[in-house]
Design goal:
Blueprint lengths: L1 E9 L3 H9 L1 H8 L2 E6 L12 E6 L2 E12 L3 E6 L5 E14 L2 E12 L5 H21 L3
Antiparallel strand pairs: 1-7, 2-3, 3-4, 4-5, 5-6, 6-7
Length: 142
C-alpha cells in the first residue's frame, strides 16, 4: 500500500472551506474532473454520510466513491465502492481551525491496486491534480 499526503492552508474560516470541499460538484470543479453526486445522503446534508459520487471522463464513469465519515468542519473520509482494479482506497480530509479566518486541510490517500507496480504512478498523478486544485482554491482567499 502507498500513501500520499498534502497540507494546504486557507485564509478563510474552516466552515467555508469544509462546506466548499464537501460539495461533490465543487470538488469536481476543483479537480477539473467530471464528478457528480449519484446518491444523496439520508442526512440533512445531501453530500454527507453515505452519499456516493461518480468520477468519470466525458460521459464514462470509471469509479464511484462513498462518503464513509462526515464530521462537519472536522473530517471527511471516502472509499471507492465499485468494482475497479483497486484493492484498497481511502481518502481523508482533516480540517483544522487555525484562527477566526484561517484553517488548514490535511489530505491523505491510501491506495493499493491490483497492479501494485502502478500504485506510485497513480498516486503521483492524484497528488499533482489535487495539490494544484487546492493551491488554486487557496489563492482565491489571499
Amino acid at each position: 500500500m502507498q500513501t500520499v499526503s498534502m497540507t494546504q492552508e486557507f485564509n478563510a474560516p474552516v466552515e467555508e472551506i469544509f462546506n466548499y470541499l464537501s460539495d461533490h460538484n465543487n470538488f469536481g470543479a476543483l479537480l477539473n474532473a467530471n464528478i457528480k453526486r449519484i446518491k444523496d445522503s439520508p442526512s440533512d446534508n445531501v453530500n454527507g454520510l453515505d452519499s456516493v459520487r461518480s468520477i468519470g471522463i466525458a460521459s464514462l464513469t470509471f469509479l464511484e466513491e462513498k462518503i464513509i465519515t462526515f464530521e462537519p468542519y472536522t473530517l471527511i473520509e471516502y472509499q471507492i465502492c465499485n468494482n475497479v482494479p483497486v484493492n484498497y482506497h481511502i481518502g481523508r480530509l482533516v480540517f483544522t481551525k487555525l484562527g477566526e479566518n484561517k484553517c488548514s486541510l490535511h489530505y491523505t490517500i491510501d491506495i493499493e491496486t491490483k497492479f501494485s507496480f502502478a500504485d506510485g504512478l497513480i498516486l503521483f498523478a492524484i497528488k499533482t491534480t489535487i495539490a494544484s486544485g487546492l493551491s488554486k482554491l487557496a489563492k482565491k482567499y489571499q
